[in-house]
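A protein record pairs a chain with a discrete description of its three-dimensional fold. The shape at a given residue is found from the number at the same position. Here is what such a record looks like in full:
>
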Amino acid sequence: MNSKIKDEATDKLFEAILTLKNVEECYAFFEDICTVNEIKALAQRLEVAKMLEEKMTYQEIQQETHASTATISRVNRCLSYGSDGYKLILERIGSKRTE
């Protein structure tokens, strides 16, 4: 766990997110709490992580997502040395698709 972000306010934010029941509720909450660009950046990073896990090249990812090489590199670093959050989510959404 990253102690740099862990505090009471962040705990409350994550607890709030965990109460959301469906995609529509997520849209409503995230549209209120984030800017459109912030939401798009988060979505882009998740897509980049999925593509990196699929062994796509930086160039392929950049062409498809328009992510900068800095963003792709950062996501790749998280996949290799991070807290395994991307891997957890990709695993879960991957298994959800096969159900």
Remarks:
- The chain has six helices and no strands.
- Helices lie at 8-18, 23-33, 36-53, 58-65, 69-81, 85-97.
